[in-house]
Amino acid sequence: MIKRILPVLTAMLMLPLLWSCSEDNPEPPVPQGPMDRVERTVLMYAVASNSLSYNLDLDMKEIQQVAASLDLKKSRLLVYSVQLDPKTGETMQPKLQRLVKMSYGYDFQTIKEYDSLNRSTDTERIAAVIADVEYLSPSDKYGLILWSHSDAWLPSPTWTASDTMQYAFGQDKDGKVSHYCEMPDLAATIPAGMFDFIWFDSCYMANVETLYQFRGKADYLVGSVTELSEYGMPYDVTLPELLKKDVNLVQTAALEYNTYITQTNSPFTISVLNLSKVENLADITARCYSDFKYLDGTTGLQCYSRRVNPALYDFGQYTREIIRQNHPDTSEQLLTEFQKTLDEVVVYKACTDKSFTGYPINRVNYSGLSCHRLSSDMTLKGEVFYRTLDWYNRVYGDQKP
To answer: pTM score, two decimals?
Structure first.
């Protein structure tokens, strides 16, 4: 009997102390309007209602582990996420959260919930979240991390040439149905001038077609020419850099690359791309592709993708082959001008010896950008879709091969 009474008495005596601690360290209130202005806000837009749901949990834990080293009075991380319920497999309610210090440590506090009428891959939802971030978190500068599955410029499995609704970034699953956002629609939804960097923590997005479609949307775009492993971005390494007002993206990308080769032993590629120079790249590429003739075969071309039709080849190598084939008399001059312009766009590139799929990567042919090898076979959905892209219309001009 005494053994039962003593724990009860002890607990009763501790109550005033616990109440006092709670009053001394109250939980931060959920903001009902704009928060204090900060130097930088980074929005992570994470569509994880798919096979990556658990991977997002791991990334969120990485962020919590490094949170104590962040100055959250000067910077802010907001995470929009949608995931699958680990017990039922059903899509959970999408929410916008902020990283904040609670009484028990750093955690994510929900500041807004969203209905499921719009999928997280719908352009209306993407635009609404970005507008909410701009309103709720006034900042001198903004950065955007796009987190999910992605497949370069390629059309989604649901796209047809007659579609008015186009859904390839994201994969937001609703039961057995998957919803996507086509790359051009995603680019069109991002407001011009708001973000100084867009970082794709997803596969295959360092391609010249995506780069050109995102022109004017940010100063820099960061991505990978290859498929990424399950590790994704090491947020405990990169986030302290990305939340700085004057972030050094080359340094941050190098940190991520070094983390991969020293800690994960996993294949990896990364590129930092200067969007302000992309029109210059389009100019010189249009000259290289003039009097266009389809490249004979793919022998020797460095491939970065699993698929064959259409495959993702190295942009620099492919264009050099086009120059040599189509402009033999002026090839040296064109090659020099092209390489100079390409180097102004690709300000940082790094790769391991192999891609995630096991293909060897020859660093001599690694330009930091992938591209499509144009084909005349219009029975392929990819060829039809490719001819809707801005890059195709810009560099092939009136030839329309």
So the answer is: 0.91
Let me know if 134 is exposed, middle or buried by CB neighbors in 10 A (0-12, 13-18, 19+). middle
Candidates 3.40.630.30, 3.40.50.11970, 3.40.1190.10, 2.40.128.50; correct CATH number of 38-275?
3.40.50.11970
Residue 26 is classified by DSSP as P
The SS3 of residue 177 is strand
At 298-330, the pLDDT tens digits run 889 999 998 777 889 999 999 999 999 999 988
> And the tokens for 123?
């352009």
> Looking at residue 399, what is its pLDDT?
84
Task: Provide the residue type at 230 as one letter.
Answer: E
> Kind of pairing, strands 195-201 and 220-223?
parallel
Q: Is the pLDDT of residue 21 over 70?
A: no
- Residue-range domain boundaries for the chain: 38-275, 280-399
CA dihedral 246, 195, 315, 328 (to 10 degrees): -90
- Dmax (CA) for the chain in angstroms is 101
